[in-house]
């Protein structure tokens, strides 16, 4: 029961992050399942089955709050589904001993990308409104779908930063569109795992626990995307992914405990510094934006009695 409650809380937290940042539900959930000894293919299958429900709820919530561009959803979701099906069948046939470190390397790379991207660069918004081309979205969807299925996550970490980096959509619509299109990816990946695995290794109680946590968080996250600074959240999530998957890799290669502890403490220190840097950068950007707005609006009209009298003359 304690394990199920923990998994439900992870599902809730992961969906809060995913729905407000556009990434990290699958990566976070899969990382936890691998940490407690789950087969990599079964972990990814479990997460994707839960995501069928959570992504549907998340998509509906984002649509309700006006965060979805349906053209982008169609153009990236269909090739994403193709890539996810291929990735799921590939992972199902991969030997477990090879799969676990391989998937941890993929997750670690994604975590590093998210951490560095959001800590040092933040979000680009200077070209918002310029249409996104199909020749950009289709290959992006295919690659992101394949990485998502093989890594148990990756649709958001690959897709969201790529579209944000283009600067052609406002962040809330990028996040809403990525979350909504992920429904197609989750369905296709689940079908791929059923073809390759059947139901072997999939714990339906874990699926339900992840699903319930995600369903509770989905509407909250769709609202939070309007108010939570993505830069800070991105640094926090990226550091968590790097920390947990570094631990998995070090243990997989039988590194001595003292070196594992040293490495994890060092990463934790860098992670804390990155979050602090992101918070400071966000506050600086907010002050600069307020100053620019004050300059545009100009000085306030005088309201003293003397000024009012002078205005009359």
TrEMBL record:
Protein name per its UniProtKB record: Probable membrane transporter protein
Compartments in which it is found: Cell membrane; Membrane
Residue ranges crossing the lipid bilayer per the database entry: 72-96, 102-120, 183-200, 206-225, 232-253, 259-279
Gene Ontology CC, one term: plasma membrane
Database matches in Pfam families: TauE (PF01925)
Topological type in the membrane: Multi-pass membrane protein
Protein family membership: Belongs to the 4-toluene sulfonate uptake permease (TSUP) (TC 2.A.102) family.
Organism in which the protein naturally occurs: Isoptericola jiangsuensis
Broad class of where this protein is predominantly found: membrane
Swiss-Prot/TrEMBL keywords: Cell membrane, Membrane, Transmembrane, Transmembrane helix
Coiled-coil regions, chain positions: none
């Amino acid at each position: 029961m304690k394990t199920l409650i923990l998994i439900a809380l992870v599902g809730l937290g992961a969906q809060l992050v995913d729905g407000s940042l556009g990434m990290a539900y699958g990566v976070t959930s899969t990382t936890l399942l691998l940490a407690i000894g789950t087969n990599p293919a079964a972990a990814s299958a479990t997460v994707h089955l839960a995501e069928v429900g959570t992504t549907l709820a998340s998509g509906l919530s984002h649509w309700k709050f006006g965060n979805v561009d349906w053209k982008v959803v169609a153009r990236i979701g269909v090739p994403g589904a193709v890539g996810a099906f291929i990735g799921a069948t590939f992972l199902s046939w991969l030997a477990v001993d090879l799969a676990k470190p391989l998937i941890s390397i993929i997750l670690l790379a994604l975590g590093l990308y998210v951490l560095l991207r959001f800590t040092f660069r933040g979000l680009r918004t200077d070209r918002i409104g310029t249409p996104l081309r199909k020749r950009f979205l289709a290959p992006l969807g295919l690659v992101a779908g394949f990485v998502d299925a093989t890594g148990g996550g990756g649709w958001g970490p690959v897709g969201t930063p790529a579209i944000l980096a283009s600067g052609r959509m406002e962040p809330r619509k990028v996040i809403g569109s990525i979350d909504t299109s992920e429904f197609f990816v989750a369905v296709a990946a689940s079908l791929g795992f059923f073809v390759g695995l059947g139901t072997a290794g999939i714990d339906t109680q874990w699926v339900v626990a992840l699903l319930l946590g995600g369903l509770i968080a989905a509407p909250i996250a769709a609202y939070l995307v309007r108010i939570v600074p993505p830069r800070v959240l991105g640094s926090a999530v990226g550091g968590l992914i790097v920390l947990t998957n570094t631990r998995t890799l070090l243990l997989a290669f039988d590194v001595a405990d003292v070196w594992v502890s040293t490495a994890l403490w060092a990463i934790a220190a860098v992670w804390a510094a990155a979050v602090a840097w992101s918070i400071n950068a966000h506050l600086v950007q907010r002050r600069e934006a307020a100053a620019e707005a004050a300059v545009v609006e100009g000085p306030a009209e005088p309201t003293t009695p003397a000024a009012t009298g002078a205005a009359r003359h």
